[in-house]
Amino acid sequence: MDTEICMPDLGTAAAEIKIAEWLIEVGQPVVRGQALLVAETDKAAIEVESIATGVLQEIRAAVDDEVAAGDVIAIVAVECDAEISTAPSPALEPAAAEEATPVEPKLEASTQSSGPKPARKGMFARNRQAAVQRSEGRRQPAGLRDNQRAVTRRLAQSQREVIPFNMVCRVEVSAMERQREALEVEFQRRVGYDSFFIQAIAQVVRDLPCFLGYQLDDEIGTHEQANVGFVVGFDKALHTPVVHEADNKGPADIEREVAGLALNAARGKLLSDDCSGACMIVSNLSSYPIQSFHAVIPPGSSGAVAVGGVEEVPVIRDGIVAAVPAALVT
């Protein structure tokens, strides 16, 4: 009996889901609950499991195809459980027996035997015994989580497809500091540098619409709004939520939206729409002792702004040297 495998609802707002990788080939056995493929939304990669035990008979959605929730992506031919569970593995059984025989019996004989001292082992037996003992305490590599796999793919895609042109300038933030103090008195909360840079970048994009464009294969795509993303990290994972139409919002409104998106990121509740549509990205390390750095431009964005640490620097005004807070911005 054939069982249809449909693309499940992955809980995102994206209409289309991309097939990133098939983990099982046609003709291979599969069990219920085993990962069949990796599906990729705009910001996450999720493993899709089989709902049946049998043999993968047909793949109806190839790698890089885009499907919707409910579409049939594969066919599994359901077989008798006995056929699948009792099928011998020609590659694994002999290898396991061959590897275990020279080492384990000799170890057991050397520890339990009370008779005469056994003959000295050959060089290969000693080396294999030492390798077994070393491997027992060896730490196994940890696999990447879904978000980490998605970030890794997008980083590699950016390195292949996006050619950055980096420019560095020093930005004085004295006016930001004064406005932060005023907003703190009015709203009883401190407004972060992120909100000011998001607003400033969005206003630049509004005045210079060329930054709404981005490379799309051999064409130029265009965003409709001045949406600006920001980088936030939680639990060893990076996220880039997006403040939509940031050019029409003030720093206090942006701060509230940034706080809400960051909270959803920490709880793992970001939707696809929360992380899509950014024409520019802000990566802010102003509170760290980092002078400057280069931010990665995500595919689909026209640029990224990297804000270094804020520190007091000397400037000359009207022949007088003064110290002002400033940051290097790339």
Q: State the CATH superfamily name of the largest domain.
A: Chloramphenicol acetyltransferase-like domain
CATH fold-level label of the largest domain: Chloramphenicol Acetyltransferase
Order of secondary-structure elements = EEEEEEEEHHHHHEHHEEEEEEHEEEE
User: Largest beta sheet, briefly?
Assistant: 4 strands, antiparallel
Taken together, the total number of domains comes to 2
Range of strand content: 25-35%
The CATH architecture assignment of the largest domain turns out to be: 2-Layer Sandwich
Rg computed from alpha carbons, rounded to a whole number of angstroms: 29 Å
**C-alpha end-to-end distance:** 60 Å
Query: Can you tell me the CATH class of the largest domain?
Result: Alpha Beta
Walk across the major sheet and give the strand order. Answer: 1-8-6-3
Class by SSE composition: alpha+beta
Mean pLDDT: 79
Describe this structure in words.
The chain is of the alpha+beta class and 330 residues long. The chain has 2 domains: 2-85, OB fold (Dihydrolipoamide Acetyltransferase, E2P) (Beta Barrel); 165-329, Chloramphenicol acetyltransferase-like domain (Chloramphenicol Acetyltransferase, 2-Layer Sandwich). Helix content is 30%, strand content 27%. A 4-stranded antiparallel sheet has the order 1-8-6-3, with no helix packed on it. It has a 4-stranded antiparallel sheet with strand order 5-4-2-7. Strand 10 (213-216) and strand 11 (219-222) form a beta hairpin. It is elongated.
